[in-house]
Amino acid sequence: MKGRIHSIETFGTVDGPGIRFVLFMQGCALQCRFCHNPDTWDTSIGRQVTVDDILEELEPYLPYYRASGGGITVTGGEPTLQAPFVTQLFKACKEKYGLHTALDSSGFCEPSHAAELMRYTDLVLLDLKQMNRTKHEWLTTQPNDRIIAFAQWLSVRRQPMWIRHVLIPGVTDHAADLQALGEFVGKLSTVEKLELLPYHRMGVYKWQQLGREYTLDDVQTPTEWEVTRAKGIIEDARERSSLLA
Known about the structure:
It is built from nine helices and eight strands. By secondary structure, it is of the alpha/beta class. An eight-stranded mixed sheet has the order 3-1-2-4-5-6-7-8. The protein is globular.
């Protein structure tokens, strides 16, 4: 079995606990307006690899991953588009090296498609981009029904999660939307961490290279005050929701 990958990072420190081998898969069903890797969208390109190819690239760095409590994170693009390949990779990483495995996903996936993969996944980094369905569709080109259902399915099966939300001024920072996010997360049973990620513009040049229009060109990175405000709204709503759950 082969998978299509975009790139590899051998010393990742922000995609799960510890130092991590981060594998970026090729292909994504969403086309987020703020995506910093639009070059991962196309499912027909990328480097074709086997599980053994990835293990060979990972192996030299095993001491760092083990000593730091790290492991392997598969992201994208959207890794669940290649769920059978990622399943075999995670299975091999656990059986051969005993590594911690993390899946960074948008959640735009039918649960049945990811059931086998979850058997070998220790942590899901779930990106909740926008709780309002109409706004989500404008932001990502897709509605969020499938994502909400996937998050609820992970909660029911007691899958450990970190929730991630990108704070985009004027786009995802409205009080009502932040409250809705907090209320939803408060009803999930296995959320270990909620990460509020400030929007950045580091991937804009890729849009230009691809000849794509970047529609958030006037949006700036949120200030520290804006991030603190958003965290407060989310956490207040999350706490109230968890008490009622």
